[in-house]
Fold these 4 entries.
Entry 1:
Amino acid sequence: MMDFHCHLDLYPDGREVYAKAQKTMDFVWLVTTSPRGYAATSKVLRQTESIVVSPGLHPEVAAQKAPELELLLHQMADSVAIGEVGLDGSARYRQSFDLQMQIFSAVVERSQSLGGRILSIHSRAAARDVLDILERFPGFGTAVLHWFTDSAPLLSRAVSMGCWFSVGPAMLASANGRKLVAMMPMDRVVPESDGPFAKISGNPIMPWEASGVAQQLSSVWCLPAATVSAELLRNGQVLRSNLVSPAVRIR
């Protein structure tokens, strides 16, 4: 079982969830929402062979956390995995969009200067701007677009740029999510939970429930669930091997 985008530290019982994930899962990418949050989390929920903890600055908190940008850029030197970062152009966060652009541009430029990083990227209502920034800094590494919900043409552009995609049960609960996933290259899709924010039937999705996406993908891709599970495992092994080593140019 693998989960390539999880806010494991933000579950109400995060220590217990971490302990169970450590025992039962092959891999979890624990993304954080702020540099200071990462500094605190990485002391309590330590990185292991199966759990990667990464520094990030979530676009939803850009207005509050912008003063921590320099700390994030410093933290990036010691982490191949970076996230959650990106842009959010939805109405609720549009007021901070210029600031988000400055932060995300600085992160991608820093990734380029460090020789490449793997970024878990939020792109809600902002995929065009995300892709524009990535194109400005060739050699930034690898983009993993988390819960991609933008248009089919922008998805095609992302695919042509070599982006990967993390897909979870909540995304596939919508018709638009299923339509977009049907267009994604099967060899660049990995499972995610996005727990505890993503929910099914009102309950937060747990990291070990990310693997349930294989059953949903089997109907989208018209393949047996076992075949889909094997494909997700192969993809996950490729991405995981790069998340824990400096060889990040897997595109």
Entry 2:
Amino acid sequence: MSNFINFNAQTERLSLRCVEDQDAEIIASLMVPEIARWLASWEVPFTVEMAQKRIIRSRREAEAGSALPLAIIERETDRFVGWVSLYRYRDNPYRGMLGYWIGIPAQRLGYLSEIKFAILQAGFDLFGFDSIEAGAQLANEASFGVMTSWGMKPFEERMAYSSARDRQERCKYYQITREEFRLSQENS
């Protein structure tokens, strides 16, 4: 398996790199109830210690080649603005799961749209995924907008366990296949 700890990508305004210990404080400050309510495994209050543990675990997964946990950094300010991750399904190594969040101060600036090519390309090239999916609670219209803008299409609804709230929640899932991504690149 590949080691993704040194992954780095740049867009016009952003830099993507593996999350680091130095990110813990800003992650804890950005993980507010308005963000965490939409995330299955991010609790509030989210402390610096919790962020440190998540970073350590995420970096181990990156070293093992099972995840790509990336800090989204504004290039001009070097400010951490969000987190995007790709995970390999344990029971299907050719299927990936996408997760993301942007802190409130950086929302509605088009950052998730800006990184879509770099993230999807990494999933299909680095991981060798045949498809990548993302899911959200049924009321999370903003997330469905992101998924649609990334070329993903709805494919199912199912219950998903939220460890942050210790309950099952109905979620809608979108996906994009390797072939759909290839065709979208040819047509752009």
Entry 3:
Amino acid sequence: MDVSNAPSLDGPAALRFFETSGHNLLSAARAAGVRHHIALSIVGVDGLLASAYFRAKKIQETLIEASGTPFTILRSTQFFEFISAAVQDGTAHEIPISPALVQPIAGDDVADMLADAVFSDPFNAALEIAGPEQFRLDEIAGKIATAYEDGRRVVADIDARYFGAVLGKRSLLPGPDARISALRFDDWVRDSLQPGWAKTLAS
């Protein structure tokens, strides 16, 4: 199971990482007789190739598909936890973020779906997974900022970059066949505000 990510999201660094790690992992998998290669990727990767990071993720997928090893690629929508981390960015007074639609998912639900893939037959294609609700990205960022008592203003900016790419309204949404998780955003926020969580997310 490959859930690795580049230590730097800078385009050239991400490209080097996924090309190198992809070749190394797949070569080791063939030598070990691995019967099911599972990898985590991102919903929308095909339409965001203007971003070097998304090109790097697409290269990872292409290497897996061409490897000859049975595989399943799980393309996930944005994690609630990732959006929470993104809210930490911005200026001292504003958080500029795209108003694109998103259907975010809890990291724990992603882990459960990856575990399900381990005990399933290889799909030999990409499967999409997503949360149960749609939001505008700026809307959910505002909800997270409010929950954590961040007084900065969230600004909807259609030119705000997402890993270097400009988003269309539906760039980050899954297709109709996506597997939908159970945990809703309000429940995730409630759980996240338990003692110790805010400190963990900030660290």
Entry 4:
Amino acid sequence: MKVLLVEDDKALAEGLQRALADAGVLVEVAGEGKQADFLLFTEQYSVVILDLGLPDGEGAQWLATWRNRGMELPVLILTARERWSDKAAGFSAGADDYVTKPFETAEILFRLRALVRRSHGHAHPLIAVGDIRLDTHTGQVTRAGMPVSLTAQELRVLSHLMHASPRPVSRTELSEYVYDRDQEPDSNVIDVQISRLRRKLGGSWIETLRGQGYRMLEPSADPGNRGAGEVD
């Protein structure tokens, strides 16, 4: 999961960024609406956390603008404003969830995971591809009931593939969801992550599609599967 946090309180933003990073979530921070506006339409994110009181305008107004421009990302408003009128304005602008400060980081994490899961059409917190299970609440992965140990980056790659399944996901898309915009990973870094996942899960679960990228699929689910060993 890759989050854009739109928050002008630097201490709060850095604290939430660190706390979510400990749970394997990649967080990029924008301190004002204008910066967020640029990032939302140039970078890839899974979900947005938005404060209402920004130095260059109301968060709800920025959100309404983004929705009018076609942005479909789920948005969680995180604000100190508790009045019903503020909540109504946030939801009317296009918010998907609303949390007031102070907050528990664990609650934010649960809500973010639920928003991302539902945006991909998954209602249940357990996402399955065959006998591979991803618990979106805990980040635990199992195969045939046995735990699979993954690094944070491997988990982000696998999570994105499982959320998207059976849609193919390009290398570029995976790279943008695994690394922040200030990093410049080697051109083969995604290939390395995929190779490691194949060793841990079994080589036939992640298919390479020439010219399209990778697809997570139960081996028996697609008779036309060209095999995980192909390269594009």
